[in-house]
Specification:
The chain has three helices and nine strands; from the N terminus they run αββββββαβαββ. The protein is α+β, with helices and mostly antiparallel strands. Strands 1, 2, 3, 4, 5 and 6 form a six-stranded antiparallel β-sheet that branches. The protein has a three-stranded parallel β-sheet with strand order 8-7-9, covered by helices on one side.
Length: 179
Amino acid sequence: MKKQLLGFVFLWFVLTLCMHGCADIKSGQQVAGIDVYRGTVIAKSNKAKLLSLEIGNGDKSKIVPIRFDDQTKGLEYSATRYKVIIRYEKRNGENYALSLKPELSQIPSGVTVISVDDVKVLIEKREVFELIDSRPAARYSASHLPGAISIPVPQMKDLQGMLPEDKDTLLIFYCGGPV
């Protein structure tokens, strides 16, 4: 149980570090000479080898087609509704994805990142803390860390009644990435 918990917390920690490297990339911007789009995958055709990416918000959003091929890295992040950062290049007048990576959220102000070693110390000292799985409910149902409670991200605005009554209880959130 401890190894599994530490593994998930480590994964969350690494994903958190990745967030900061992605924060300043804007859609249509060049980064180190490579064109970059940020957006949400709304469709994928393996037969046509084509992704449809929605960039922008509301009335200003637009759909951008991006082709992919056997050399495209990170296609595991191309499921619909994934928020992604796509590095691409122009070939014969079309955009071709070089790589996809998840676009992860920024950590809110006032939130502290806890290291795997710190969590290990909490476990060894049998400190009181609440482990919260912020993945979608279906993923929680399929598998979760022992003792974790499920509070998917969309439900976090309605936290009343879900968290411990003792307001001094340490809360540790983990997730499974950009789903």
